[in-house]
Design brief:
The structure is a single chain. The protein is mostly helical. It has one domain (about 5-90): Ribosomal protein S20 (Methane Monooxygenase Hydroxylase, Chain G, domain 1, Up-down Bundle), CATH 1.20.58.110. About 90% of the residues lie in helices and about 0% in strands. The chain contains three helices and no strands. The chain has helices spanning about 5-40, 45-65, 70-90. Helix 1 (about 5-40) runs antiparallel to helix 2 (about 45-65) and helix 2 packs antiparallel against helix 3 (about 70-90). The longest helix is centred in the N-terminal third of the chain and has 37 residues, at about 5-40. It is elongated.
């Protein structure tokens, strides 16, 4: 257990930040799964809308810290590629 006041405060901050980061990552996973489901169902308009919503969440996560910006860019690029491939196949 921490003994100094600053160490105790650091523990409290870490708990709050860990919980916030966990919530953010969970929302991103949920949005990504919704995008993939719309893509699998063949609904390109819905998939495009869900991709934009997922991009918004990912960019927020990159700006606020839970995810690295290169990871976010890679994930967005891969989702965009899947959407473009599905649109070309139709």
């Amino acid at each position: 257990m921490p003994h100094s006041l600053s160490a105790r405060k650091r523990v409290r901050q870490n708990v709050r930040r860990r919980e916030r980061n966990r919530i953010i990552k969970s929302r991103i996973r949920t949005a990504r799964h919704a995008f993939l489901k719309a893509l699998d169902d063949g609904d390109l308009d819905d998939a495009d809308r869900r991709l934009r919503a997922t991009q918004r969440l990912l960019h927020r996560a990159a700006n606020n810290g839970p995810l690295h910006r290169n990871l976010v860019a890679r994930q967005i690029g891969r989702m965009q590629q899947r959407l473009n491939a599905a649109a070309t196949a139709k």
